[in-house]
Amino acid sequence: MSHPLTLRDVSHGYAGRSVLDAIDLTVAPGQRVGLIGENGSGKSTLIRLVAGIEQPNRGSITTPHDLGYLAQDSGLDPRNTIGDVLTQALAPLHDAVARLEALSHDLVNPVAAQTYDELLTWATFHDAWDADRRAEISAQRLGLGALDHARTIAELSGGQRSRLALAALLTRRPECLVLDEPTNHLDDQALDHLESELNQLPGAVLVASHDRTFLDTVCTAVVDLDPSHFGTDGEGGRRFTGNYTAYLTVRRDSQRRWEEAYAAQQAELADLRTAARTTTSDVAHNRGPRDNDKFIHAFKGARVQKSASRRSRDAQQRIEVLERDQVRKPRPPLTFAGDFTAAGAASVRVRDLLVDGRVHVPRLDVAAGEHVLIEGSNGSGKSTLLKVLAGRVAPDAGDVQVSARRVGLLTQDVEFPDPAATVRQTYRATGSELLLGELGLIHPRDVDRPVGLLSEGQQRRLALAIVIGEQPDLLLLDEPTNHLSLALVEEVEAALARTPVTVIVASHDRWLRGQWNGPRVPLKL
Questions:
Q1: Which pick of 97, 253, 371, 406 has the fewest CB atoms within 10 Å?
Q2: Which architecture does CATH list for 347-522?
Q3: 161 by DSSP, 3-state: which?
Q4: Inter-CA distances, 400 with 149, 387, 389, Å
């Protein structure tokens, strides 16, 4: 009974700036499509268009009538109670079961029989008979079981609101689910529940997410809205069949072909420019005419001159064609290059560290050049530990010894001393010898913008650029994958794997944790 979600030639923008251009997309029942792309590539915009929150500037969107939408801010009415939200989710399912019971007594009536058949199909699709059990399980596994149903939405935290909205949607099981970053605020148990529920849904699912493990576990296709991943300016919205791992394989092959095409074109341009500069003076320029040979020499010289001019002209025409259709230069990979010498090699020794109410670490030893992952639930003290090692938080007790020439700390919450200063000024103030443009983290159009006007993702990239520019030999990274595009996250992780500096990472990122090969240190509340 479910219908597909369809977008045809959808374009949208704000204040003259195009965000989405000519997007075509179909999500059939049973398909789960993940939207990915650089910050600002239009993921949330596309989700809002499909949900009907905004209307496209051009194109058409056709959705199933029964559509469920999860916004990043939950979208719940703060005046409602928890009980109100769950009751509203269950109401159509309870009504369907009650109507089926009533209609079952009048099936000899053809009209009643047809209505019964249609309603039975709807109720079966939505698994209406199991709705109450699903509501209870979702509330428990999403961390809402202990909350009083009389509490208003206004009394809940942002994370609790998001989890409640998600629980209501999973209970309702709409024909089409449209989700914007649904894994925010979820612990591992809640994530497992969400993934299990979505994999069992018979309807269409469209989801914007930065969670790579979620995309890998749930999605049957991935749509990349960022054309810059493929060396072109017109391929946003490319669809890849399969999960995130399958997408990565294709994208890496595409990156390799892009780099090879760029290198081949640059080599051809170099040869053509040499040919375009060739003149008759370059042809046998040390041999003059022999005796009695002046006429032949002049005749041949004219032919050489004509041939050289033709080759130069042909080369110039070919240069113009290649420059007009020039392959964009691939961005070089990130590199963390600390001064890793015998005198500057960083190490850490911690014994019985205590910061009251925030963290307790009985023992931590990190050898020079070692890469260590700090794990633990929210509130276990991961961020506090890194700030102690960076000298920004003083311990209440214990012994902390950090041997490092220079410590670089990337914090979760990025702050800059002067929000009115430009990106260029903020970076230069660090005294880094590395050029900002060489890092490839900040778009050239943004280098003279005030840092206070940057998006959260742009500020995060600038903070990362500053840490790299400091060239530390002890690198402390607190949730380094937060607010970064998936393509950049992959590069950061690859750079971390090959850096010789000592690294301590605190992260809840399941993909990063799953791929980590070094030592792990668990923290407990």
A1: 253
A2: 3-Layer(aba) Sandwich (3.40)
A3: helix
A4: 46, 12, 7
